Amino acid sequence: SSSSSSTSGEVSTSQTQKQGSSQQLATASVFSSVTSPTTDLPQFEENEEGDKTTKLTTSSSSSRSSSTTPSNLNVKEATVVKRLANIRLGSTADEEPSEQPTEVKIGATRFGSIKTRLISYKRREGQVPGRSGGLPMSEWLIFHIHGGGFVANSSQSHEVYLRSWAKHFEFPIFSIDYALAPESPYPRPVQECFYAYVWALNNANELGWTGDKVLVTGDSAGGNLTVAITLRCIAEGVQLPTAIMPIYPALNVNMEISPSRIITMFDVLLNQGVLETCLAAYSNHPVEDLDKLEITDMFMCPVLAPDEFLLKLPYTSVVALAFDPLLDDSLEFVKRLRKLEVKHTFQVLEHVPHGFLNFKDVARETVAAHNVILKMLQHIFDSF
Predict the structure, then answer these.
(1) Disulfide: which of 85, 215, 329, 346 matches 251 by Cβ 3.0-4.6 Å?
(2) CB neighbours of 38 closer than 8 A, spacing ≥ 6?
(3) Helix, strand or coil for residue 330?
C-alpha cells in the first residue's frame, strides 16, 4: 500500500507490469572510448583482455565473439542488449577537480574513463556501431544513476530492476558507473554524472535515442546525484531533463537528527553506522567530525538549494518510504517544491525497506511497491 500527493493529478494506474519471459537473455557488450562529451562517434579500443570484438553471451554463460554482431540474432528474442562504453571525461587538463561547477572541456583527460552501461530490450538504430538496421530510435531515454551510499554498487548490481524497466517500457536505459568514495569523494561523482549526461545529449544517436525526451532517475545516493546534476544543468545553462525521479533519495548529507533518522537504530540495511560511514566517505571527513560539519553546497546537499534554482526544476516525481531513515530528506524537499508551486508528484510507499528495488521480487510487498514505481514512470512517459 502507499500514500501519495501530487500537484498535477493522480498517478495513472492503467499500465500493468508485463510478465517475465522464459526466453534466454542475449547480451552484447562493446567496449569503446569517447575523447570528450562533445565528440562524434566513439572508436573501438582494446579492453583488459585485448578483445576489440563484440561479445555475445547467453544466460547459460556460454560465449563467443565475432567482428560484428551475428546476423542470425533475432532482435525480438534479445531480451537485453548491453553496451559498455568508456567515456573519457574531465575538468581542465592542468587543474584538480574542485567543488566549483566545472564546464565541459574538449581534450581534458584528468578524469580518465567512466564506464557506462546501455540497456535496451530491443536493438535500435545506432546502438551497434558499424551495423545498420534495428528499430527506429526511441523518443525517450532513461538516464540512470545507481545507489549504494556513494561507496558501493554499480550499474550492473542494479540490473535486477533496470532489465525489467527496459522490457516494460522498451526505452533504452543509460546507467552510469561513477567513481566511488572514499577514493573519490565529492565533487567527483557529481562531476562524472554531469559529464556523462552532457555526453548523452551530444551523442544521442549512439544510444538509439532521438535526443528528444530524457528522464533522469536514481535511488538513494543516486537520487541525490539525480537532483544534483539537474541543479548543475540549471547553473551552467545545459538542457534540462524532461523529468526527474529521485527514489528514496539522500538529499541531506549533514549528520542531523530527525524523526526518520532515529529509525537508523532499527533499520537492517541503513543503520546508524552505515549512514555515518557513507556520509563521512562522501564528504571526505572523519566520522567523528560529522556532527561539527555544516554542509551548504547545493550540489552536495540538494535539499538546501536556493529557491531560484528549485523554481527551475523540471517535473519532479519523488518516491519515499514510510519506514526509511531518509524519509525526512524527501519530506523537506517536497515541502519546498510545494511552497514554490513546482510541478511534482510525491509518493510514500509502505511496508518496504530502504534499497528494496535491488530485491524487488522477494516478497509481495516489494513486488507491489515496484509496480507503483512502474505506474509512476508510465505517468511521466504519458504526460510529455
Answers:
(1) 329
(2) 104, 106, 198, 199, 202
(3) helix
Residues 72 and 19 sit within 8 Å (Cβ to Cβ) = no
**DSSP label at 298?**
T
Q: Which conformational region is residue 134 in: left (phi greater than 0), alpha (psi within -120 to 50 degrees), or beta?
A: left
C-alpha cell at 210: 532521438
Q: Which amino acid is at 188?
A: R
27 within 8 A of 81, measured Cβ to Cβ: yes
- Sheet with 315-321, strands from edge to edge, namely 2-6, 344-349, 315-321, 243-247, 209-219, 138-145, 173-177, 113-120, 81-88, 32-34, 43-44
Judging by beta carbons within 10 Å of its beta carbon (0-12, 13-18, 19+), is residue 98 exposed, middle or buried?
Answer: exposed
Give the count of beta carbons closer than 10 Å to the beta carbon of residue 52: 14
pTM of the shown model:
0.76
User: In the structure, what pLDDT confidence band is assigned to residue 216 with cuts at 50, 70 and 90?
Assistant: very high
Helix (H, G, I), strand (E, B) or coil at 5: strand
pLDDT band at 6 (very low <50, low <70, confident <90, very high): low
- The SS3 call for residue 17 is coil
Q: How far, in Å, CA of 211 to CA of 84, rounded? A: 20
For residue 362 the three cell numbers come to 522477494
Band (84; pLDDT cuts 50, 70, 90): low
User: What average pLDDT does the segment 208-225 reach?
Assistant: 97
Separation of alpha carbons 8 and 345, rounded Å = 7
What is the CA angle 310-204-155, rounded to 5? Answer: 70
Tell me how far apart the alpha carbons of residues 314 and 201 are, in angstroms, rounded to a whole number.
16
Task: Tell me: pLDDT of 147 over 90.
Answer: yes
- Which of 233, 125, 217, 109 has the alpha carbon at shortest distance from 165? 217
Give me the half-sphere count of Cα atoms (radius 13 Å) on the Cβ side of residue 82.
19
Position 124: which residue type? R
What DSSP line would sit under 167-227, residue for residue?
HHH---EEEEE---TTTS-TTHHHHHHHHHHHHHHHTGGGGTEEEEEEEEEEETHHHHHHH
Nine-digit cell at 126? 545506432
C-beta of residue 354 within 8 angstroms of C-beta of residue 267: yes
